[in-house]
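New to this. Help decode the following:
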Amino acid sequence: MGRYLGLFKATTSHGVGNGTAVTHCRSDCSTANGSAKIGGMSDEPELIFSPLQQAITRGGKTVEVHIYRIPTSGWTLEVVDEFRNSTVWDHEFETDQQALDQVLSEIESDGIEAFIGTPSGIHRH
């Protein structure tokens, strides 16, 4: 069980921490009441967003914690940094609280810097 860092860039984010929605869509997205239809089509899965989503700041650096699922799956945990780099865990969580506890634990043990990548166009060597 692990996580992936910077595999893709978040393209859209809305209302982190207010229980509304955080969406990462490569096409048209619509959000309402903590859920979103990807692509604006009715046959696409509905995303359910956890009210536990939030921005976390440590040492002046902030990341956004996104916790979401479709109705038939477990919770997905994603962390997006200030450069829109995304870290996504490669397994699902049974509860949104377990997902939040996981990221808080890793921030405590590894530091928030472990979730912050480089600005777009800059590559580490």
Q: What stands out?
A: Confidence is low (pLDDT under 50) at residues 4-33. Strands lie at 3-9, 29-32, 35-38, 46-49, 54-58, 61-69, 76-80, 85-89. The radius of gyration is 14 Å. The CA atoms of residues 16 and 54 lie 5 Å apart.
